Amino acid sequence: MKDRRKLAALIVNFNSGEFALGCVRSLVHAWEGEGRARAALEIVVVDNASPQDQTDALARIEALGARVIRSEVNGGYAGGINTAYAATTGGPDDVVAILNPDLCFLPGTVGPLLDYLAEHEDCGIIAPRTTIDLTGELHLSRDLLPTPTEQLRTTLARMSPHWCRRYGDRRLGLAQEWWLSERPLETDMITGCCLFLRRGVADELAPLMDEGFPLYFEDTDLYMRLRATGRKLVRHGGVRILHHWSRSAGVGTGFGGEPLRRYWISFEHYFRKHHGELGLSFVQSLGRMEAAWPPEMLHRAMHDITPLGVFDRPLELVLPRACPFVLELGLAPTFVVTVGIVGEGDRWVCPAESWQWFFEADYFLRAFDRSTGDFLGAWHFQKRGAGRMGPLELAEIEAAGGSPSAAEPRQSSQPSP
Questions:
Q1: Rounded to whole angstroms, how far apart are CA atoms 334 and 392?
Q2: Binning pLDDT at 50, 70 and 90, where does residue 46 land?
Q3: What pLDDT score does 403 carry?
């Protein structure tokens, strides 16, 4: 029965045409590479009224056998997913995949997710391990469920180095299992970039996504509704996919404008829906408290930071001693949002392929001995030069059979979100 099941892949595109093309191409390649019939893979891409010309990319997506729906209005991510889902067909045991357009499926990544769903009826949603580079060096951090208490922790972390250290240590402790485990882990929160669920579960949750969330929090709401049915949310550490990460909305100081406006609408809707007016009032009061805090007192470093300078080539970080280590890499010295790096020895040498995926930006690193928990140091460096490999590399990855080292890095012409 597993081999006969269909997969319906849902993708929303907004100015990400070349990435969406790469995602579709890699999914088809992974599907057929496992010996599955192309007719059993249904892909629907909804273009959410992209203001940038997507004509060529969407035409090439259609040439791969996907259905493209060109919406005249931007109905939000949730609306786009619901539109895509309504255009698919299948039975209750078939599988639905909710995918960000900036994903790349590597060979052998689809089957284990389908099999886990088939073998575990209590699993409602399963997601793979995600890295932001081809070599699998840079692991996305473990997302924590947004609650009023969690909002308090992050607010205090931005306001006080003492609370920042406490929050950072807690988050790092939770993240290490995430980065090291190769087995499936039950969780209450996960990145929403790649989610697999049975169609029968999707129908039971209908609508699949709450369109009151114009952007962000729609996946968290989905998890809350799923877990209310008694089903589990699972992250499979033994399956890895590549997530180009944040190519449409922006990061750091680049995150603003319409994405930020939609974020705050979704933020309020989420806390009101799941924590009531009292919960929403509490987190809003935290926002007012932070806004009134002296700017120079925000985002202060919780460690002494050693400057390393400017790098236009891969970084080599020398540690004070040889040990099994974990590094956190972030865009701020508070380390509230990070990627993780796990290694062993007296240094970390960033692989050349991984270096290509860094923004041009300021970065902060901190290191710990995994065997003792000892803090080893914190550093700051600036990355300059070409970076953030883009969708044009995906064809080379496929041609290399999924081998990252065989793909020649080049600078992306896509705007970084």
A1: 34
A2: very high
A3: 40
Q: Looking at residue 337, what is its pLDDT?
A: 87
Task: Report, in angstroms and rounded to the nearest whole number, the Rg of the chain calculated over CA atoms.
Answer: 21
Shortest CA distance to 415 belongs to which of 84, 50, 76? 50
Containing 361, the helix (H) or strand (E) segment is strand 361-369
User: What's the burial of 309, exposed, middle or buried (CB within 10 Å: 0-12/13-18/19+)?
Assistant: exposed
Helix (H, G, I), strand (E, B) or coil at 235: strand
Q: What percentage of the chain carries pLDDT values higher than 90?
A: 84
CA contacts within 13 A on the Cβ side of 209: 28
* Residue owning tokens 């995926």: 357
Q: Is the pLDDT score of 404 beyond 60?
A: no
Closest by CA position to 236, among listed 342, 113, 410 = 113
The residue written with tokens 């991510």 in the block is: 77
Q: Which residues lie closer than 8 Å to 188 by C-beta, 6 or more apart?
A: 145, 223, 227, 233
* Mean pLDDT taken over the chain: 90
Contact of 299 with 333, CB cutoff 8 Å:
yes
Of 248, 242, 13, the C-alpha closest to 106 is 242
Residue identified by tokens 């968290």 is 220
Report pLDDT digits (tens) over 342-380: 999 999 999 998 998 888 899 999 999 999 999 999 999
Distance CA 43, CA 21 (A): 11
| CA distance linking residue 367 with residue 359, whole number of Å | 21
In the 8-state DSSP scheme, what is residue 393?
A: G
Between CA 161 and CA 301 the distance in angstroms is: 6
323 with 344: CB under 8 angstroms? yes
Assign 333 to helix, strand or coil. coil
Give all domains of the chain, ordered by start, each with its CATH number.
2-146+170-243 (3.90.550.10), 306-406 (2.60.40)
Residue 163: other Cβ atoms inside 10 A: 18
In this structure, are strands 194-198 and 95-99 parallel, antiparallel, or unpaired?
antiparallel
- The set of residues, in sequence order, having a beta carbon less than 8 Å from that of 4 and lying 6+ positions away, is 40
**Is the model's pLDDT at 179 over the cut of 70?**
yes
Interacting residues of 317 by C-beta distance below 8 A, sequence separation 6+: 308, 327, 347, 348, 349, 350, 365, 367, 379
